[in-house]
Amino acid sequence: MLKFPVDGGIVTIRSIILIPTECATVITSSKETLKEAVVRHENFNVALHLNFLDQEVAIGGTLSTKGRTELCSLLKENLDIFAWQPSDMTGVPRLVAEHRLNIQEGYSPARQKKRGQAPERVKAIHAEVQKLVEAGIMREVYYHDWLSNLAMVKKHDGSWRMCVDFMDLNKACPQDCYPLSEID
């Protein structure tokens, strides 16, 4: 689903994936159109921004050629709403995106012991931290109350995702009375 504001309100684009057998009953019995229907179910990867050709958007194959073209043109018209690099994420007012810790009384700040990382992971950590520092999202602090280790997780494409181990912080915060449903 994609939502974005326009003059008259908010436009919502939803994707409905049709089951191939349902498509076959709607399409005429011509072999050429049946082949076209099967090909249409594959997703299309499209690079929208000329400066970031490696960052592609997947468009569902159930869209017609005209629908795909219109969606691409709509996305290209609104390129400014996407964050193409970390520096694009700055400038959000603190009132909108400020996070405060809801720590229960009686908990003192916890500093986890530093865990060593493999050399490959250290390179990925330095590269990610450098990107975030240059973008102004992260800054060095000298007197911190809470200190948590990083956990590096390998993505399906072989690159690394940097996560933070908030185990001690989670113990100090109250449980949410509205837990998320199972999201696996």
TrEMBL record:
Organism from which the protein derives: Tanacetum coccineum
PANTHER family xrefs: REVERSE TRANSCRIPTASE DOMAIN-CONTAINING PROTEIN, TRANSPOSON TY3-I GAG-POL POLYPROTEIN
InterPro entries noted in UniProt: DNA/RNA_pol_sf, RNA-dir_DNA_polymerase
Protein name: Reverse transcriptase domain-containing protein
Domain of life of the native organism: Eukaryota
